[in-house]
Specification:
- It is a single chain.
- The chain is of the alpha+beta class and 118 residues long.
- It contains 3 helices and 4 strands.
- The relative contact order is 0.16.
Length: 118
């Protein structure tokens, strides 16, 4: 069984129709005899608005507090996707940041290498 990692955020989860499409794509991929890990980022414009809000309230926010603030955008989008899976009678486990069983995932695409930590 192949492992497929899908990442969605920004305009791909910008509104209810797009959120439904993302949920459908995840379910379809899982139906192709694949294990799916879906990474969901904030909806379009949300991160920019949170950054603006942080800068307006404190020009030099604490990095930890700033991270917590930005995570709220990701959590909101992440919570909307599973609601759509119920239409397909599918239930996947939902994890946010440190709840994830993935400790370290190293992605290598051609000459680009990056590490994602949870």
């Amino acid at each position: 069984m192949r492992l497929i990692v899908q990442k969605y955020g920004g305009t791909s989860v910008a509104n209810p129709e797009r959120i439904r499409n993302v949920a459908k794509r995840i379910v379809q991929t899982q139906g192709e005899d694949c294990r799916v890990v879906a990474i969901i980022s904030a909806m379009a414009g949300v991160t920019d608005e949170l950054i603006k809000l942080a800068q307006e309230t404190s020009p030099d926010p604490d990095k930890r507090e700033f991270d917590v603030l930005l995570a709220t955008g990701e959590r909101a989008a992440c919570a909307l996707i599973p609601r759509q899976w119920r239409k397909y009678s599918v239930v996947f486990p939902l994890f946010v940041s440190l709840q994830s069983p993935v400790i370290r995932l190293k992605l290598i695409t051609s000459n680009i290498s990056s590490t994602v930590w949870n």
